[in-house]
Amino acid sequence: MVDHHCHSVVAAELTDDALAGLLTESDRPPAPGCSPFDSALGLAVRRWCPPVLGLPAHAPAAEYLARRRELGAAEATRRLLAAARLDTCLVDTGLTAAAGRELLPLTELAGATGAVVREVVRLESVAETVASGAEDWPRAVGEALAAAATGAVAVKSVLAYRYGLAVPAERPARPAVVAAAGARLRDGRARLADPVLLHHLLWTAVDVCAELGLPLQLHTGFGDPDLTLHRADPSLLADFVRAAEPSGVPLVLLHGYPYHRQAAWLAQAFPTVYTDLGLTASYTGPRVAAVLGEMLELVPFGKLLFSTDAYGLPELFSVGAAQFRYGLGMLLSDWQAGGACSAPDARRLARLIAADNARRLYALR
Amino acid sequence: MVDHHCHSVVAAELTDDALAGLLTESDRPPAPGCSPFDSALGLAVRRWCPPVLGLPAHAPAAEYLARRRELGAAEATRRLLAAARLDTCLVDTGLTAAAGRELLPLTELAGATGAVVREVVRLESVAETVASGAEDWPRAVGEALAAAATGAVAVKSVLAYRYGLAVPAERPARPAVVAAAGARLRDGRARLADPVLLHHLLWTAVDVCAELGLPLQLHTGFGDPDLTLHRADPSLLADFVRAAEPSGVPLVLLHGYPYHRQAAWLAQAFPTVYTDLGLTASYTGPRVAAVLGEMLELVPFGKLLFSTDAYGLPELFSVGAAQFRYGLGMLLSDWQAGGACSAPDARRLARLIAADNARRLYALR
Amino acid sequence: MVDHHCHSVVAAELTDDALAGLLTESDRPPAPGCSPFDSALGLAVRRWCPPVLGLPAHAPAAEYLARRRELGAAEATRRLLAAARLDTCLVDTGLTAAAGRELLPLTELAGATGAVVREVVRLESVAETVASGAEDWPRAVGEALAAAATGAVAVKSVLAYRYGLAVPAERPARPAVVAAAGARLRDGRARLADPVLLHHLLWTAVDVCAELGLPLQLHTGFGDPDLTLHRADPSLLADFVRAAEPSGVPLVLLHGYPYHRQAAWLAQAFPTVYTDLGLTASYTGPRVAAVLGEMLELVPFGKLLFSTDAYGLPELFSVGAAQFRYGLGMLLSDWQAGGACSAPDARRLARLIAADNARRLYALR
């Protein structure tokens, strides 16, 4: 199985609260009476992870956390990563810490998962490291991205968080970009939030990806509270998708929920668009088969990819992989039972989504 | 079971058409060949209510209406309200009539339901009773709301109907509010529809709720034809939710359908946000388990509340409670059968949604 | 069964690629490794069509295509159309070719389907044939439409493709229309894309439909890449729906997916609004019952219509009809098994959607 979008994990000990804090998209303390374990994702974690650490499925959260401490974070991490049984992981290196702790370097992540690990470069993070004058910004950013992306398998944008996905069809004009770069220098803000700079950056990514033959991943749909949900509707990308089509660069719309049907339509309408469910499969817990079903209504079977979008917790690798296997298995056995497809069709579809589509798209091996 | 959002009912006799007219969100006469009984809600009414009046489930509408007349509206109302088996009802008193008939006073509703009844004050209705000069409007409205809300358990806003939920992050400035209040006085229109006044009112509610320790309920999602559906998408509230977060006032997003997944994400991302399905559980009839499932994909289990949003007809109390019990029961037994959660998990989740979350949020008993 | 919205088909031989190209909303070549047969619609075609040509269900695409060639396109077309078992087809004559081949004339389509065939006039196509000066445009367009619609059963608009559905509540003023018509003449562009002309045209259709007693069909929801999905959300029509309500003209919202719940709410709220699932039932393949279920949550049972929206391929008639029969059958037997409705209720609902609603709405026979 190829996990085409994930992050590294913390292998150090975490407090119970820090661990629970990685089981929600919120970066705030839980509301009174609430715990991130009391959620669809919490149920999924308690279903799949306790057996990996030698407890029965559905063990209470407190017992699970105690057992995890007893084993030690390093051993628990090793077991949970191995349990995901992944062949290849494409890791977004834009985040370097979780819950204030450093993430495992890619070589150690490779060792613990037993998977081939390849890098996905995060566009905005690369750009934020560029120090240049305003006039030189377009060139400097392009060079920095080309350098960072060489050897990587994809570039990823988090534009959805910074501004939203309503990208105009036209590239920003150079004078506007230089002016915006100048304003940012005067403000002294590292974080890129200006729409002109963000859109210029996205087009820079298109150019670099076209040059290097890489796909461009875009976060779409739900995420942390920094994001405004309706501005992350992938349908808002339509003008950009059309404008970028001649470049031939594949655009991979990550997650998409609750706009995954919109993402699936884009994937059907435009040859350059691909999509995944990402962390949705984990976060929706008992509902994974239903959500996968919605995605498969319009998406071409050659354009849906598997990913865990795991971040911070090794549990999220285990859970992401188990949820995908379970959810797709349930869905396809329902389809067969209802006469909607044959057993060979179901097997082929599962292989495409689990690995073959990603191998073809990212030219793996 | 705590019904955290409902209205009172008509106990007087109603014509068949008037009764049917309370089984749809439309305030227009039905289209040719259509009856509100021919709907998912109609099926739910015919499933749950005939047995309460001594008929078999799925009795035809005409037989049901005849039996209701035979028993008399008062007796039918008594039976239907009691059949809901509610412990506590939080009643929005902003509506005082249905189908041109007065609603039961709260004391009589309490008697007939056997439930503790507490009041939810409707923001815009309170403000529309305020007579004051433009300069004095901000003070007068704040005082009127504080007076009305004292002794109540929550304040509710119907901003979604008046303007939609795209509330700016900033409070309107006093001069703009005074100017808008002056314009309204000159127009002589009682109905509050000006966005500046509406947004000022919402912030007034935040202040009063913070002072009194009350949650603020907001209508979101579908409703009657007065509403424009996409403007009632709760995701549009994101900027307001962030701006109101420091107040600590819980924001309860009512109904939400068909944007209930968006509401659930807000509840996960922001500690102050809660949500319910409200009348959706009744209106979607045979589909209640599926819709509840969608809501439970992202909502923290401590932040989903039960309500009937019953209005006008005692049937809607019976149906709302029965639909919720049936739908959640179906969903959770499916989850257990599929191995997604344990029996104790399912029981605990049901208790949280049915009553415990509301008791904690509204500080009941 | 009355198919209230479809197109004619190509009876000539098609290459395999041309045939596959009619199994997707995309007008682009498929992405590497992708075939339109690898989709939910592809599964549905391979489920229902091979048996019609004497092969087992789920025969591989290559075998199916070989068998189709062996029989000859004319014979395959005859069999596939007859297998749909339709009583009446309302055919949108705005498209005259598919994959570069002419579509069957209506009389031949009637012969092959064994159905009564009636015409639906496409608004924008009629307007694009009008040659007149700018000053005369409003009169000339109204006359051309009235002439074209006489004898037809409905008018259909593809405004969703041209501009999107955010139609203002007010009719464009005559001077603005004349100015826009003049600008179009100067541009020399046949295709109508100016919003003022499009909105004027829509109101012209309302007038003509009111005069002739015809419903007005509107494309909503997904379609080919020419369309921007979120601009085709039927909720955007709310202001227009309210403004057109006094005309009494029924507005039939076609397809709607993935905004079909929004369409269903409009149908509940406004007596003039009707809706269908159209090609969604075919395109979502194994998921047809789930999507139908979503539509039936709010739509009045007297306001949902059946259509195939078949275009180009006779397969799409077979598949559309089979998918509808299968999907609705599955859904209603689930509802009965769960106690949500009685067997007579289920039979009545099926009859309404399959034929009776369309007969009433279009005054057929």
Please give the structural blueprint.
3 copies of one chain form a homotrimer.
Chain A (H helix, E strand, L loop, with lengths): L1 E5 L9 H5 L19 H13 L8 H11 L1 H11 L4 E5 L4 E2 L2 E2 L3 H8 L2 E7 H6 L8 H13 L4 E4 L1 H4 L11 H14 L7 H18 L3 E5 L17 H7 L6 E5 L4 H10 L3 E4 L3 H4 L4 H8 L8 E2 L9 H23 L5 H19 L4
Parallel strand pairs in A: 1-2, 2-5, 5-6, 6-7, 7-8, 8-9, 9-10
Antiparallel strand pairs in A: 3-4
Helix pairs in contact in A: 2-15, 7-10, 14-15
- Helix amount of chain A, in percent? 40-55%
Please indicate the count of domains of chain A: 1
| CATH class (first level) name of chain A | Alpha Beta
Number of helices of chain A: 16
The CATH topology of chain A, please? TIM Barrel
What share of the residues of chain A does DSSP label as strand, in percent? 5-15%
Question: Could you give the count of β-strands of chain A?
Answer: 10
Radius of gyration of chain A: 20 Å
CATH architecture of chain A: Alpha-Beta Barrel
Largest sheet properties of chain A? 8 strands, parallel
Order of secondary-structure elements of chain A: EHHHHEEEHEHHEHHHEHEHEHHEHH
Secondary structure class of chain A reads: alpha/beta
Strand arrangement within the widest β-sheet of chain A reads 1-2-5-6-7-8-9-10
Largest interface: A-B, 38 and 40 residues
Give the integer mean of the pLDDT values of chain A: 97
CATH superfamily descriptor of chain A: Metal-dependent hydrolases
Protein name (chains A, B, C): Amidohydrolase
GO molecular function, one term (chains A, B, C): hydrolase activity
Organism (chains A, B, C): Kitasatospora aureofaciens (Streptomyces aureofaciens)
Domain Amidohydrolase-related (chains A, B, C): 192-363
